[in-house]
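2024-03-11 09:14:02 INFO receiving multi-entity request
2024-03-11 09:14:02 INFO entity count = two
2024-03-11 09:14:03 INFO echoing inputs for audit
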Amino acid sequence: MPPNVVRRELVEEKASSAVAWNCPEFGAIYEAHSQCIYYLALRLMGDPTQAQDATHDVFLKAYRKMGSFRGESGIRTWLYRITINHCQNLNQSWHKRNMFSNADDAVWETAVGSGENPLRVLEVKELGERIQRTLDSLSEEYRILLLLVADERLSYEEVGQLTEQTADAVRGKLHRARKSFASAFSKFS
Amino acid sequence: MNSESKLRQQEQQVQSEESLHAQTSTEFATAEELLRHDAAQIEVPGAVADRLNESIAKEPKPVRTWWRRFVSGD
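2024-03-11 09:21:47 INFO inference complete, emitting structure
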């Protein structure tokens, strides 16, 4: 990746934050990419509390491994890779298979932006729950594919790298994934 | 109230209901569009950044990697 692209990716989207980062450079990376990482974790885990833990753990892993990151892929793609592996490991763990989710209404409400109109929150919450049920009903392959393609900053080639297939295979499977999603979504109305 | 004003009132009510419907229902062409809309509603709780910052403070200082040099412009 050209250095100017890396620099833009790191710095351009730096958002204002209330956090006084101990490592400002890494804080800029967090500000630029935490939303998409949290969203992916939320929809893969289906639980806001676990998604918060996963987001923390993913960025901490990234901080520890930054020395080995050579910029061969985009930072966002690299963070997505860590997130997918992390969430897959957690989903396969004994705890996930044997314990009930601790997500309750109060926790779900905190996943939505604060300061919203209560009716808007309700609408968002209901839609979010419906989307979650729909994604949960799909195969893991389709779920990850749709969530990655939904990020417009990722090319089909990058989605292919993350899902270990060609860009053409991504296009082919995406068509079927869309149909599966639409069919399941209509059932959860 | 005469019949004309009753009719006008009914028309206004229908217009109001149609408008509400337009505001609350959105159609999405693909699953990705719907997921993008969903993602835009989700904010990362601020507690995650605070916790991460605390965790980083406990970590040994990383070696000065290429990305730090690059971002700082040295």
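2024-03-11 09:21:48 INFO post-check: Chain A touches chain B through 57 residues (CB under 8 Å).
2024-03-11 09:21:48 INFO post-check: Chain A has a mean pLDDT of 82.
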